[in-house]
């Protein structure tokens, strides 16, 4: 299967609406002349394409016919919508329009870990989106021969989690929050690696159709190995060790009270750093070689993130 005309739906700017995928993916796509990308935008969008090589179509996403018309002649749709925007009814409208327009492949907006894990199932869909329901719908359509789909998951974006503090490290003040022992294996991938894999999947789609693909971008990653790499780069950190269990218990209580966004912090910490019970790991499903990417060591991943965000010791990172 050959995919040339690529329609992109969702966040295209770095850090727009909580998603950075488009900001990294678009420049990478532009390096490949075999693709003709088109951004599908609402009339209220202020997105300015970085190159005239990207076509722009204004779409009324509330009107099915408008979406269908925008997708005529498209080979693949890339859904880059931010997590909270992946509502099933909205996604189904775009998917159905893609089927009607004769699109070959729908690239689902997943970009997490294993969405079928018990821990992910516990996350409120109001925050993480209806990713499971959207995948089930795509699976149904693929079995009916109406459209193919693909998805990529590599865990949290290593660079974003490190540079924005979610990983537990305050880089400016050199303070580290270590959860439990700090030895739990972490399955994270830098965003540029995710985007490189996406481009390779679009170039060679046949082996990655109608199933999720998992990649791993950083080898031997734990909070402790990350701490060692950071200290080697910018000096010693002040360390605080925190028990995950009380954080999890508070999060569950908040979830039961309907305080979803406050609960997400604790649920996420438990899913990534908690040492007991289920986990969201996918190590046994990694297919880096298939999609043409390689994992790097922790030290190199840290240096790459620093360079990407323009971070230098004593100088504020760009986030």
Description:
- The chain has 319 residues and is α/β, with parallel strands linked by helices.
- The chain contains twelve helices and ten strands.
- The protein has helices at 21-30, 64-71, 88-101, 118-122, 125-128, 131-143, 158-163, 191-203, 223-234, 244-256, 260-273, 298-309, and strands at residues 5-10, 36-41, 55-58, 76-80, 105-107, 148-153, 169-170, 175-179, 211-214, 238-242.
- The chain is globular, with a radius of gyration of 20 Å.
- Residues 15-19 have low confidence and may be disordered.
List the keywords.
3-stranded mixed sheet; 7-stranded parallel sheet; alpha/beta; 10 strands; single chain
The main pleated sheet reads as:
7 strands, parallel
Instruction: Extract low-pLDDT stretches.
Output: 15-19
Percent helix, as a range, is: 25-40%
Mean of all residue-level pLDDT scores: 91
User: Mind telling me the C-alpha Rg?
Assistant: 20 Å
Report how far the terminal alpha carbons are from each other.
Answer: 38 Å
Order of helix and strand elements from N to C terminus: EHEEHEHEHHHEHEEHEHEHHH
Structural class by SSE content? alpha/beta
Q: Looking across the biggest beta sheet, what order are the strands in?
A: 3-2-1-4-5-6-9
Strand content: 5-15%
Number of helical regions: 12
Q: Count the E strands.
A: 10
**Molecular shape:** globular
